[in-house]
């Protein structure tokens, strides 16, 4: 097998892995959301993330006050907004960890099946 054939084989295998990961992620999402619609989860995540967003905004504004001895209102506002965005994102990610865990788990299972199939293709077992 020359280099071109081998690289085509690796590219094809990579595509199979990506496709299986996407299919697994979709299966994990469907499995998690089978019980309820996604809108209550998303609105609940956003509401629960407001606390970390406020905390992040306060810490960002405080950091903007003491950074390099400059106390411009624009800098304080920008640091506060950035801190609030980081806090909100962290809050949503933390609250949705069971959802993302379900997606990641199913994607990993699907990738494992594809890897096993690939191994058996390359290493056939002769039971005779």
Which class do the helix and strand fractions yield? Answer: mainly alpha
**Percent helix range:** over 70%
Strand content: under 5%
Q: Biggest β-sheet, characterized?
A: none
Rounded Rg: 24 Å
Order of helices and strands: HHHHH
What's the overall geometry? Answer: elongated
Low-confidence stretches: none
The rounded distance between the terminal residues' Cα atoms is 28 Å
What is the number of E strands?
0
Task: Write down the overall mean pLDDT.
Answer: 86
Number of helices: 5
Textual characterization of the structure:
There is one protein chain. The relative contact order is 0.15. Helix content is 84%, strand content 0%. With 128 residues, it is mostly helical. Helix 1 packs antiparallel against helix 5.
